[in-house]
Amino acid sequence: MPRFVCDAMLGSMARWLRFFGFDAEYCGPEFDDREVAERARSSDRWLLTRDRELASIGPRTMLVRSEDVDDQLVEIFRRLGLRPEADLTASRCGECNGVLAAVEPEEVRELVPPYVQKTAVRFRRCTGCARVYWPGTHTLKILDTMAAVVARLDPP
């Protein structure tokens, strides 16, 4: 499975790749082009960028032409021949790219709102930043977007 580095222009892309289960680092504006390229090269990752100059550095760079995040996902998946699943089973932390591990409700009781304590039955916690995730109303919207992206990968 390919791994990615997204430059400062593709922060939302990094988050969506993580939802799909891809290891996607984000290099914000504090990184210059040289640092971004070296990070991708040294960790054997695809460098995703909308910056033509940065994309020319190589060797495994992809200039993302689309402007809309959904279109960008379709573009990347098609160009790399990827067919991700439209589910969150393998998703990574949207904030830090950490691996998500299932935890018992008792383990996170003090970390979630009272309503969530009473209603949610499944929780996952990031092994990197300790953020807690549970199925909520936003989950359906994320899954709908993922399904729409995957459906566009089918031949017309």
Structural commentary:
The protein is α/β, with parallel strands linked by helices and 156 residues long. It has a domain of 77 residues. Helix content is 39%, strand content 15%. It is built from seven helices and seven strands; from the N terminus they run E-H-E-H-E-H-E-H-E-H-H-E-E-H. Strands 2-1-3-4 form a four-stranded parallel beta sheet, sandwiched between helices. It has a three-stranded antiparallel beta sheet with strand order 5-6-7. Helix 4 packs across helix 7. The relative contact order is 0.15.
What is the averaged pLDDT score? 95
Q: Could you give the count of β-strands?
A: 7
Dominant shape: globular
DSSP summary: helix tally: 7
Q: Topology as H/E string? A: EHEHEHEHEHHEEH
How are the strands of the biggest sheet laid out side by side? 2-1-3-4
Residues in helices, as a percent range = 25-40%
Structural class: alpha/beta
Quick synopsis:
It is built from 7 helices and 7 strands. With 156 residues, the chain is α/β, with parallel strands linked by helices. Helix 4 (69-80) crosses helix 7 (137-152).
